[in-house]
Amino acid sequence: QVQFVESGGGLVQPGGSLSLSCAASRPSFISRYTGGWYRQVPGKERELVATIDTRGSANYADSSRGRFSISRDNWKNTIALQMNSLKPEDTAVYYCRVWGSGADYWGQGTQVTVSS
To answer: What 3 state SS string does 15-75 have?
Structure first.
């Protein structure tokens, strides 16, 4: 069973930056799948932040476009999310997701808090 470990969350002031990383426990696993980042705040549905397909083509939600950047490193077996110009409304638990060919995997989530 493959697992995904997220890291990089924490507390940052408005306007600051954070970088999230999601690493798969099985070597060479991520290269076969589409990857993405989602976020969720209490009482609301989980929402899409960004996705990246196996060719490296990225898509963003309106709320993250222009501020966030998703990337993948198939050699390191990771999917990353660089977040710039963070706003208080970006506060949420961020989850990575890897899916395709009938498989669907989620990370455990990492808290991002944007506050002064």
So the answer is: CCCEEEEEEECCCCCHHHCEEEEEEECCCCCCEEEEEECCCCCEEECCCCCCCEEEEEECC
Distances (CA, A) of 47 to 64, 76, 96, 97, 116: 11, 26, 11, 12, 24
C-alpha triplet 83, 84, 85: angle, nearest 5°: 135
Mean pLDDT across the chain: 95
Rounded average pLDDT over 20-49: 94
Closest CA to 21 of 85, 69, 88, 89: 69
Which burial class, exposed, middle or buried, applies to 92 when counting CB atoms under 10 A from its CB (0-12, 13-18, 19+)? buried
* Residue 89 identity: E
pLDDT at 1: 81
How far apart are the C-alpha atoms of 58 and 89, rounded to whole Å?
Answer: 22
Question: Cα separation of 3 and 21, whole Å?
Answer: 13
Q: What does the pLDDT read at residue 53?
A: 96
